[in-house]
Specification:
The protein is an all-alpha fold. It is built from 13 helices and no strands. Helix 4 packs across helix 7 and helix 12 packs antiparallel against helix 13. It is a multi-pass membrane protein.
Length: about 325
Amino acid sequence: MQEIQSNAVLPAGSARLEKRNLSYKRKQQLFIYGSLFIPLLFFAAVRIIPIFYSFNVSFREWNILSDGVRPFVGLDNYIELFQDEVFHKALKNTLIYVGVGVPGQLIAGLAVALLLQQITVLRGWFRTIYFIPYMTSIIAVSWVFRWVLIPNGAANGLLTQLGFAKQLFLNSPDQAIYLITGVMIWQILGFQMLIFVTGLQGIPQLYYEAADIDGAGRWQKFWRITLPLLNPTIVFSLVIATITYLQTFTQVKNMSSAGAGGPLNSTKSLVLYIYDLGFKHHKMGLAAAATVILFIVIMGLSLLQLKFVSKKVEY
């Protein structure tokens, strides 16, 4: 009799348990989707909506000091931009920052990562030393290097002691942009080093052991094993570095003469040009048009890199 009663109770108990589990799963899913929705909402508020708003502003004559009349002017802002020699110079300078900074940063980061892989003593200490500049304030680093590179600074003092002539450095239209790019490479080197160290540690040692058995040298292992298997890491670093150098602003603002991208606009980046248009000349329509162009350049270069640099990697 007791067995029959217990058997009769089991289905009802399992049904309640199943219902409770279903309720728990629903609450869990609501929590997960809610947690995902809140950051997405924040991203839309600070990123997506301003992008579309910038498109609207770029088609208007928008002066922040005007009385609120902002007429629609179509493509006039874009036409005016492409007729501006300073815009051409800023765009060219930005491409120089990318063309010099990105390869230099990737090569230096990979070289340091490979060297760190070869040592066993104080490896963590060296990683920390290389990573410290990346954590340091960009403004502080920029002003330290500006002090070093002034006409009577430490760099010219060292050159004089070695018997060389003094250099203009940041006051030279030919030298300044490459010096600023060099400072950026030096400061971001630690970040790239850490990314490449992580990528190198993800490569199975089995391949190197097989290569050693086959008699492969260091360069052969580097070109045939390390580089191909580092492709996902290289693509990530390449895209991040390209976007970083396309958005160059703080270093130029703090290291260039008068903070205006000098001398003779030789260091003015596209972002600094946008800043000057919007907050110095109060021409928000032109600034928004230049921002849209920068957005198209960033998106285009990123898509091209993902398409032509990415390769399928199989371990």
